[in-house]
């Protein structure tokens, strides 16, 4: 959940629908994140963190965003999958070996939501539907190339009808990541792992 790896999307002047879904997670513990843009029109970002909400069963949370812009800039298609995942889907005792293995079709709709939207950038309209589900399998390993500390990060991202509020205090390390996202291979040394200290993620849709 490092700000450098969070995808900041353009704020569109769309009429927001009623805010009907809210999820909130308090993060204390290990996290891993990864973001890449293979070209000027496509990008993907994923962050997974351990959750420590008082009075709840130990779990983790995921924030996945994928964006594709038409080459003629007529439309933007984005997918967002966010919410609670089982603690067993994010394993590893230290940042030297964190493994994410989650099937998005198994997420509980009462503690998560998933959406794919197509935004017409000319008419400024938005059509949304459930996304295609699949498996995300990633292994993160700290490489020690760079270490940073986030003292107090506070960011609000609005994308169509979805608002994401991230607050973070953490100790971070650069990391390697390998695996697959919905069957597409991933291999990079530009990931991040670390430990959250009283961080939070709030999403309203």
Intertermini distance? 20 Å
Enumerate the strands of the largest sheet in spatial order, edge to edge or round the barrel.
Answer: 5-6-9-10-11-1-2-3-4-7-8
**Helical fraction:** under 10%
Structural class: mainly beta
What is the molecular shape?
Answer: globular
* String of helices and strands: EEEEEEEEEEE
Instruction: Indicate how many domains the architecture comprises.
Output: 1
Number of helices: 0
Oligomer: single chain
Low-confidence stretches: 1-19
Summarize this structure briefly.
The chain has about 200 residues and is an all-beta fold.
Write structural notes for this entry.
The chain is 0% helix and 68% strand. The protein has no helices and eleven strands. The protein is mainly β and 205 residues long. Strand 2 (42-51) and strand 3 (59-69) form a beta hairpin. It has one domain (3-7, 20-204). It has an eleven-stranded antiparallel sheet, with no helix packed on it. The protein starts with 21 loop residues before the first strand and ends with a strand.
Topology:
Blueprint: E1 22-39, E2 42-51, E3 59-69, E4 75-86, E5 90-91, E6 98-103, E7 112-120, E8 125-129, E9 135-159, E10 162-181, E11 184-204
Antiparallel strand pairs: 1-2, 1-11, 2-3, 3-4, 4-7, 5-6, 6-9, 7-8, 9-10, 10-11
Give keywords:
eleven-stranded antiparallel sheet; mainly beta; 205 residues; 0% helix
